[in-house]
Protein 1
Amino acid sequence: MKKYTNLLLVLFLSSICFGSCSDDDDKTNYAKDIEGTYVGTTTVNEQSIPNVEIKITRKSTNKVTLSMNQDLGVFVADIEFESDVLYAAYTYAITSTVLVNIPASDVIPDDIEMIATVVGRFTNDGDLQLVIDVQIPGNPMRVLYEGNKE
């Protein structure tokens, strides 16, 4: 009888151990949390440009694409990049170094490609803040964006 009691105890403990382990752990989908269209204001050289639209598209569980076509007064900048989404302290973050395409205009005679560093911060309330540092030779420019998810 003692042999059966020990066997039942071993089976019971084994079922608890194996039952608590699982391969389908819940993974948070940060990209889905921040995906959407944001509308806000861009500030360049102390000049505010309202109603600027930024689109965040989910590419995978924790990867997004940000796209923005922005008239910066002097030129139009097309910015599109893919970034991992990080999450800490109730804030989502993206960061990337990208190539900014600036088409020729009345002010700029030829198409230009420049490097820009983009850092974004998203809150649980749907707020987005971006800092875009554009590396213009001899005249670096900082573009700030603050917007809300629609």
Protein 2
Amino acid sequence: MPKEWSESYSLHHAAIDAQHQELFRLANSVEVLEPKETTKEVLASLIKQFFNYMREHFVDEELYMQSIDYPLLTVHQKQHEDIITAMTDLLKNTKGIEALQTKMKIVSHKWLVEHILENDLKIVKWLKESNSIELDDYVIL
């Protein structure tokens, strides 16, 4: 079932939030494909888009965390590396279009939603708790 972006996922950073929304869109594109009607080329293209966009997003997100002196940056970078490694392994080791699509449905939403909810939102919590930055004033375009 496709997942919808929610403002409750917001990091109060316009560019990062826009990237998260695009990742949701890409993950949902994989989710709604009909396995019996999807060609290998279509699925491969979507997975490549998702993978490349995710890597680009991780770089931007890490630069943002560095700019605010986020204390869990190193831990977060390791999580990003683990996601990229797991996705690379998935792409290398899954044979057949239906198996690949099924796994992509599971892992894209698992990584996407769980990573945002369990890890990215810690950034907002830290900003609030540290009182170092007013979130309403700290929306970067």
Protein 3
Amino acid sequence: MNTKKNSFARAFGALIPLTLLALLLSALIVSLANDIYAFVKKDSESTLYLSEPCSLDELSEMMRDLGIVKNPNIFKLYVISKGKREAVEAFSGEVKLNSNLSYRQILYELQNAQKS
């Protein structure tokens, strides 16, 4: 009977940390997905002005400071994964971006602003 209690306590003791880890990872994934796909983001427009092209790192940090993206590192990974690093780093000029845009829409706006 005592061994049954010990095995139950051991199983329950392992289940709690695993559940907490799963909840933490789920919250992180939901937060990242929201930033990438703009499911629920604040609506606030900002103007990004660059007098000359800059690096993807600098651009990502500027967009974080303006509230357009939450996580500049994830934005950089997204841009690189889409093969748009050179296009983004070539951007100079002015573009109005809204904080409720998805990363795909941000890339589209940067490329459109560069063409005009």
Protein 4
Amino acid sequence: MSNKKGDRYNSIMQNLLTIFRSVIFGRCPVCQQGKVFRSFWHTHEHCPVCHIKYEREMGYFLMAIFIAYLLDGLLLIPLAIFLFNRVSVTTNIAVLIGVLLIMTPITYRYSRIIWLHIDQLLSPRQTEPKT
């Protein structure tokens, strides 16, 4: 009986590792091979490998905005707390704005990739035939 629990745990951990790796390297949530972005700012319309359509409907990536807010908050709130009594308010604000400007392109990309993977977990889709 404990062997089944161990196998299940290993399977879950392997799936999480695969998803984490796919998110870090910007890969398709279905096949984990195709790249999501074709350039720094633009996503592919379909996965180059398994051909699923990334944007299921108009406004599909709106949820990625909330993920970007979360990522920015996870970065900026601890930084603001750290700087609170160490520097002046003006310096604190300048540092936070500078970090936000630098991180925005990164959080833009990763928020879309994370949203694709969350959506795949919540509402799985299969690969589509190439048309």
